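Colleagues,

For the teaching module next term, I've prepared a clean inverse folding example: a structure given as tokens, and then the sequence designed for it. I'd like students to try predicting residues themselves before seeing the answer, so please don't circulate the second half yet.
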């Protein structure tokens, strides 16, 4: 009788451990689970190094730092939108140029070739806020890619504009994508803001 009781208790303990393991698996966040093959991720971003408002002259742009946090936490790949049009420009003339581009609807060219996005389920899109939206070079790329059916997560770095119209402009560019999880962070906070980025990602 005692042996039967011990055996019953052992079986119950195994079943409880199995259920707990299943519950833990169900609670895994697919965004932050870097080895989850069912949801491949990529960060597409533009980042401006050089003279930046509130942080001065920097070697690595604010948005690049956030993109690197995302990659470190989620395992996402990256594609950086690169143009040398703004290289070496001081902050004030840069912003004046950005305003002129936005008013005229200019689409500056970018360098390189966008990777095949068909292999990705989730696409983070990030950049600084220039005159109420993303830099115009990002809209050049938007015309070259198809994000239909994908989960698209916009994020921005800024010094008071928040998301501005970036998220709504992404929705206009990709009406057949699922736009969700928008995030913004002050540019002067990004170098010490990894915990804030991680909290956002775990909340998606």
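(Answer key — instructors only)
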């Amino acid at each position: 009788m005692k042996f039967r009781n011990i055996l019953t208790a052992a079986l119950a303990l195994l079943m409880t451990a199995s259920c707990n393991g299943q519950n833990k698996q169900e609670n895994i966040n697919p965004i932050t689970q870097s080895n989850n093959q069912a949801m491949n991720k990529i960060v597409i971003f533009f980042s401006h190094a050089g003279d930046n408002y509130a942080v001065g002259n920097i070697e690595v742009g604010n948005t690049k730092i956030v993109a690197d946090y995302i990659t470190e936490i989620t395992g996402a790949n990256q594609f950086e939108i690169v143009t040398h049009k703004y290289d070496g420009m001081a902050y004030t003339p840069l912003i004046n140029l950005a305003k002129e581009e936005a008013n005229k609807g200019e689409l500056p060219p970018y360098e390189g070739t966008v990777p095949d996005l068909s292999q990705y389920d989730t696409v983070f899109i990030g950049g600084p806020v220039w005159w109420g939206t993303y830099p115009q070079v990002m809209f050049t790329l938007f015309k070259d890619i198809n994000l239909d059916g994908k989960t698209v997560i916009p994020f921005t770095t800024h010094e008071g504009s928040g998301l501005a119209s970036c998220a709504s402009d992404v929705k206009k560019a990709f009406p057949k994508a699922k736009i969700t999880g928008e995030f913004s962070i002050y540019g002067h906070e990004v170098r010490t803001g990894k915990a804030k980025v991680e909290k956002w990602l775990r909340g998606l």
